[in-house]
Amino acid sequence: MLGLKFETETSWVAVAKNGLQQLLTDHAFAEQKAASNAVSIIINYSEETELVKDMSDIAIEEMEHFRMVHNIMVERDMVLGKATKNDYALKLQKFFPHTGDRTEALVHRLLVAALIEARSCERFKVFADNMNDEQLSKFYYDLMISEANHYTLFLGYARKYMDREIVDQKWSDLLAFEAAMMRDRGTTAKVHG
Fold it and tell me: 91-101, pLDDT tens digit by residue?
């Protein structure tokens, strides 16, 4: 369903479990960045009424996810660490060349957001399916569903704003790039690490 070209190996789960505080901190800030991205789209494309409505919903939902992750950390006597750069997202954002075309720039943003959500969905499923911790397993399973919904929303909007064949080719190229990048990952306790 997600179309990802590389599957996360279950060995990443052991890395994530062993660095649970780092993983939760990274996850919390990833949710904030997702909310911030939705707000930025609203600011830059405020004339797109339906998009603004959906991005408003996503921004609120992502901040709710941040609060949920933080609450889990507090319950476990963990303190939210400092945010670190998300090299995964930064590399994806640099995949498409800079364009002065506003619509194409939006499509690129939407495709990158769709892929980040798709990979998060896949990682959350792997984590949920391989956890002995019932609370975290259920939490990540529930979030997986939300991420899948965001992925389809972003991809759907990209296809709305540009010819479907062009968007699908861009999507395919981005998926191939991301798969090659993911082959060297899975060694850090980060959502996309």
Answer: 999 999 999 99
% of the chain exceeding 70 in pLDDT:
99
CB-based contacts of 123, cutoff 8 Å, min separation 6: 8, 12, 191, 192
0.70 surpassed by pTM: yes
Phi and psi at 59, nearest 5°, equal -60, -45
